[in-house]
Design a protein that fits this description.
The protein folds into 2 domains: about 90 residues, Alpha-Beta Plaits (2-Layer Sandwich); about 180 residues, Rhomboid-like (Rhomboid-like fold), CATH 1.20.1540. It is of the alpha+beta class. The chain is about 65% helix and about 10% strand. The two termini are about 40 Å apart. The protein has a 4-stranded mixed β-sheet with strand order 1-3-4-2, covered by helices on one side. The chain has a two-stranded antiparallel sheet with strand order 5-6. α8 runs parallel beside α10, α9 packs across α10 and α10 packs antiparallel against α11. A hairpin with a 4-residue loop joins β3 and β4.
Amino acid sequence: MLSSLPGSMIDFDQAIEEGKLTLVGEFEGQTEVNEYALVILAMNLDCWLSMEAEGPRFLLYAEPAFKVAIVEEFRLYEEEQMQPSQRASETPLHQSGVELLLLWTVLLMVAFMAQTESMVAKYCNSSEGVFGSGEWYRCFTALFLHADVGHLLGNVLIGGIFCVFVARTFGPVRGWISILASGTLGNLMTSWLHFPEGFKSLGASTATFGALGLLVGGSALLAYRSRSARKIGGFALPFIAGAILLGWFGSGGGDAASKVDVLAHVMGFCAGALIGLVLARNPPASKDGGRVSV
């Protein structure tokens, strides 16, 4: 209920005196008081509006039992209203890094056209090669090798979208270094989990899922810092997208004979999420020497 009670001021004053209503806000303008009244109504609570001749001032009342919750909701509403003007300086949107994406695509295509069986055997990810022979470079070089054209195109076309999102969020250079680091660490963890059993894998999909993890990790920290359910979408959307992508081609369709390396996808995602948390926790310095939020 929202009422100014112009003809019932005796009952209204009596309710205040008896403690049935309490003041939750004082405002100078009609527009402002209406905004905060809507905040209370959005909480599915009643409120009452009174106008004093002096000023004039607009007083907003509600039931005493809900005062603490209403005041807290007012605070959250004020913070939310301030954010649009702060985004330009606190959460800058970086360049998309399309040039780096094109370079990445060219490198993958050149590597695919040049790869031979001996090259694959030497540079693919291998549990025995990495932990048995100390060939750590395999975790990185395996990202540039692919089994066939479909494998290559899937990583370039679908994975490229999320890589651009990462570049826009963390910056082109930081973003792409983090993507490659996520893929490399994902391969390393996968080989470690398989060792001493023989295991080999190749493909950029570990880095693709690392990009998804980066988005989720950064968004999760933002949601935690805001302490608001309004920010949960930033965490949920990349996670849902990752689940859909994993279900599409990341899990191999449940085929027992599938060669899709599900564990590498999961490890790449986990590595990316951890790196995303670190990047969001330590944003780059702004031009004026301060820090900017991610």
